[in-house]
Specification:
The complex is a heterodimer. By secondary structure, chain A is mainly α. Chain A has two domains: 26-52, no CATH class; 86-283 and 298-315, MetI-like (MetI-like fold). Chain A has 13 helices and no strands. Chain A is globular, with a radius of gyration of 25 Å. Mean pLDDT of chain A is 81; it is low at 1-26. Chain B is mainly alpha-helical. Helices cover 75% and strands 0% of the residues of chain B. Chain B contains 13 helices and no strands. Chain B has helices at residues 7-36, 40-43, 58-66, 69-100, 104-118, 121-134, 141-165, 169-177, 182-193, 195-203, 213-227, 233-240, 248-267. The chains are: A mainly alpha, B mainly alpha.
Chain lengths: 316, 268
């Protein structure tokens, strides 16, 4: 093994590790790599890659729940049905509205909070701990909590509106066709705040203070410093966190399932809820998997934008 | 904050904004707490009050005794702890490979980590259920741990490999000079240095993987360190990490060197 890593003093250079990095030499022999990878590779292949491949394949079959039902390969039939299924198209539209608005609102709010937390205000530790609480709560508990908050008679929201003599005090927020989706989006924003805030805060703290000082000496206002220093410096973090948030929001299930179960009607039926219903309510495994395949395509498009952005950055 | 034209006004505005955030974040939690102390009649009253008029502990009694919350908690704890241990043990060597190689394997691994986030649960849950049923592992803790293992591995790999990148290679070289094998290096040099990283990972294990913040923050962290990686490993470490563990690698490196040299002395 000793020939793999040469002793530093033998290389005759001041920083041998830098040379090796640039050269791309691995320092790991083939058998070693395999030995080290096997423990992780086995469960990944057996329980992630193989089921995933099977799941993707199921989308091209007429698989149904139940015993002794043979499954046939039916090609693109599921996808043809999907394209003419108004429920599916509707759920996709709602899914996009949900994912985009939750991600955008979450990002703006989290950026504001991260900026506030990075200043030296008194009592920010309270906000800091509060911002982490949603992360520790499972989605089901978050939803139950907000259900209590939104409750039409005994909920806090309507009582506050009643005391303030504001309109909408008798609204049943989660069963109202026009209000259910915004109400659910607010919960999504609340639940996703901590991750985004923490990521942005970490990004903010990595920005060198000298940049701000130099700009301030040159007479830049707070706003100009924010636009010309903070935002460009944060760009990689912003790109990463928003795209990951988008993917997770698009695939999210628990919060909305507990809050509205897709109702009223289908006004909050996200794609995942639609897929869940087809698979476990109606037993159409094949159809549900086809829907999952379609979602992967949508997310792949979103992710390729992200990859493109990263790639451009590396080239620069 | 550095000079602005209206420092007072700005400060007032900042405090107002911070207060708004606190209200937004805290109100649902306080309401949940308030409702938990209300009796069944007060729960459906038309004009609820924030502070319960007749506070009662009945709800907690029912949850603890009738619904067996303790038993469920112990189950969760058992599954969470075992998953954390297994995932870290299985993930560490692979994360080492991902961090220290630049070849096809590492690239494929990183791509898989990203890809695995893309697939909706519905695609994997049906076949996974069929696999577990064939193995007679449904409705068992083992099955649950296996599922969690698969769920958590991408994140643990991502996070650990970003930490391993911050560890100077000199340490490994020193150990290799003293005749340590690759496995010994991973177990005896890398693993102890990663103790803070893996422990934070274990803490966040109890919540569902999709919601853990450490995994997301580690992505940004990896990004920050990859930006500055070209300069030198030590600067990437200090930029990527917070102040508390900044001094850590140096301190550990000294300890490691000492232990390595003492081992070589005894061997010689």
């Amino acid at each position: 093994m000793s020939e793999v890593v040469s002793p530093p003093q033998g290389s005759g250079r001041p920083f041998p590790f830098m040379r090796r990095r640039r050269g791309g030499g691995t320092g790991l022999s083939g058998p070693e790599t395999v030995l080290l990878l096997i423990p992780a590779l086995l469960p990944i292949v057996a329980l992630s890659i193989v089921p995933l491949a099977r799941g993707i394949y199921l989308g091209f079959t007429d698989s149904h729940a139940g015993f002794n039902i043979s499954t046939h390969f039916i090609g693109l039939d599921n996808f043809r049905t999907l394209l003419h299924d108004s429920l599916f198209l509707n759920s996709f539209k709602i899914g996009i509205i949900w994912a985009v608005s939750v991600t955008a609102i979450q990002f703006v709010l989290a950026l504001g909070l991260a900026l506030l937390l990075s200043t030296n205000l008194h009592g920010r530790w309270i906000a800091r701990s509060l911002a982490l609480v949603p992360w520790a709560m499972p989605p089901v508990v978050v939803s139950i909590m907000w259900k209590l908050f939104y409750q039409p008679q005994a909920g806090l929201l309507n009582e506050a509106l009643r005391r303030g003599h504001l309109p909408g005090q008798n609204t049943d927020w989660l069963s109202n066709f026009s209000w259910a989706l915004p109400a659910v989006i607010l919960v999504g924003v609340w639940a996703g705040m901590p991750q985004t805030t923490v990521a942005l805060l970490a990004g903010l703290q990595a920005i060198a203070g000298e940049l701000h000082e130099a700009a301030a000496v040159d007479g830049a206002t707070t706003w100009r410093r924010f636009v010309h220093i903070t935002l460009p410096q944060l760009r990689p973090v912003i790109l990463a966190i928003t795209s990951i948030d988008f993917i997770w929001n698009f695939n999210s299930f628990g919060i909305v399932y507990v809050l509205t179960q897709g109702g009223p009607g289908t006004s909050t039926q996200l794609p995942m809820l639609f897929a869940y219903n087809s698979a476990f309510k109606y037993g159409q495994f094949g159809y549900a998997s086809a829907l999952g395949d379609a979602m992967v395509v949508v997310i792949a498009v979103a992710l390729s934008f992200y990859m493109f952005g990263r790639l451009r950055e590396t080239v620069q | 904050m550095i000079t602005t034209r209206h420092p007072r006004l700005l400060h007032a505005g900042q405090y107002a904004a911070l207060a708004c955030y606190m209200i937004f974040l805290a109100i649902p939690l306080l309401w949940l707490l308030s409702v938990s102390f209300k009796g069944p009649r007060e729960l459906v009253e038309l004009h609820p009050s924030f502070i319960p008029s007749r506070p009662t502990l009945d709800n907690y009694n029912i949850a603890l005794h009738e619904n067996d919350l303790v038993h469920a908690g112990v189950n969760s704890l058992k599954v969470a702890v075992l998953t954390a241990l297994v995932t870290t043990g299985v993930g560490l060597p692979a994360a080492y490979v991902l961090a220290r190689t630049r070849g096809l394997v590492a690239r494929a691994g990183l791509v898989w980590i990203l890809l695995s986030q893309m697939f909706p649960t519905i695609l994997i849950i049906i076949p996974l259920f069929l696999v577990l049923r064939d193995l007679h592992l449904t409705n068992s803790h083992t099955g649950l741990i296996l599922v969690y293992l698969v769920w958590a591995l991408p994140f643990i790999l991502w996070m650990l490999q970003s930490y391993i990148r911050g560890i100077p290679r000199d340490l490994e070289e020193a150990a290799a000079v003293d005749g340590a094998t690759r496995l010994q290096i991973v177990v005896r040099v890398i693993a102890p240095l990663l103790a803070p990283a893996s422990s934070s990972r274990c803490c966040s294990r109890s919540s569902p993987p999709g919601t853990s913040f450490s995994s997301r923050s580690s992505c940004s962290r990896a990004r920050a360190s990859s930006r500055s990686r070209s300069s030198s490993p030590s600067s990437s470490e200090s930029k990527g990490s917070s102040g508390s563990d900044r001094s850590r690698p140096r301190r550990c490196s000294r300890r490691c060197r000492a232990s390595c040299s003492s081992r070589s002395c005894s061997a010689g």
